[in-house]
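Summary for the funding panel

The consortium committed to producing paired sequence-structure records for every protein in the target list. Below we show the first two records in order, beginning with the earlier of the two.
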Amino acid sequence: MPRIIKNTLLNYIPTDFVIEKTINPAKIFEFNNKPIKKGEIIYLCEREIRAKDNFALQFAIQKSKELSLPLKII
């Protein structure tokens, strides 16, 4: 596996990344009740650095595209 260079993780996500067609509402919670207006979509990677079968990353990518906001992975 190639060494991942800082701030380049998004370059390793394939362009044909599959997003689940239906979102399981049990996996989603609201941080607050305010609508998303501007800013960035943040994906906090605490333990698993993987793109395949990663629901949270798929959801963050989907929201980023849906809202036309940049995605940041921390």
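The next record, for a separate protein in the list, is shown here:
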Amino acid sequence: MNTALTDNRQPWETGTPERPAGLEIVLLKRTFVLPWNQFLYAEGGDDEIRAAFTTHDVLIKGSGLNSLLVELAAQRLARLEQPVRADRLATKGWPINPRGVGCQDRSRP
């Protein structure tokens, strides 16, 4: 796995040329691992992306997220972390700046 923060200056990780088996979503107090075979679709734009899986919805807010949408569509994303306040300040000025990541169980209202 490549760490995108150092290599590509992107705050996410992509898998090797093969598609990773799932997407690991690391929140401040909880971690989710969602298999790519349950991925339905992703939509959004430069400031917000919604990725739908059969059991969960993932919402990513920030700026410069268009390239992240491309990685989601190709199912190359392996890990996505919710930034802490210090990370938000450190990424200021980067072309991609996710400010928030959330994961919602679809069975809960």
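Regarding this second record: The first helix runs from residue 4 to 7. Residues 2-105 form one domain.
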